[in-house]
Amino acid sequence: MSDWADDVVGKVLYDEKRIQEAVEELGRKITEDYAGKELLIVGVLRGAVIFVADLIRKIELPLEVDFISVSSYGTSTKSSGVVKIVKDLVVPIEGKHVLFCEDVVDTGLTWAYLREVMEARKPASIKMCSLLDKPAARKNDVKVDYVGISLEDQFVVGYGLDWKEKYRNLPFVMVPKG
Ligand code: IMP
Ligand code: MG
What we know:
- Helix content is 21%, strand content 30%.
- By secondary structure, the chain is an alpha/beta fold.
- The strands form 2 sheets. A 6-stranded mixed beta sheet has the order 4-3-2-5-6-7, sandwiched between helices.
- Helix 1 packs across helix 2.
- The protein is globular, with a radius of gyration of 16 Å.
- The site of inosinic acid has 19 residues, from strand 5 and helix 3.
């Protein structure tokens, strides 16, 4: 299934089954918590695309979906904390319950920036749902409201997470070789 990536896959941390279990559990909680509310799911491009596609099909509510793209200045493996919006939302968020979705929250700098910018637009609420969370890597006190899987501070790839822009299409999350 991933022979084409054998030269980069060091260790598979979470296989497809483990990821789907986490996604289903998140979908259940979100369905419960947002029942009767105007829910807008916002995927943070590009890492969250695969997660959002799977997650929204596990949420049994009439939700809206939008995407935002942010770039952080720095190398591909280290966040600098300087974030800017490259592609803004299409949908207005005022009065809505906005749930941001990330592939991973690492330093927390992207999420802190997004939250500050989005709060000015007066949503009814604003929360974060991340497939992966690395609490030990945090450089601020932002919290992730919905966490799929919490892991140690290490660089991981697959299921949306890239390594030099590639390997997002691996169906599992792995630690690269070397
Ligand atoms: P933060 O601002 O440091 O929380 O970083 C958020 C972004 O950094 C994520 O959305 C990812 O795009 C990227 N990132 C952080 N850790 C990893 C990783 O282990 N693999 C791939 N990308 C990562
Ligand atoms: Mg990302």
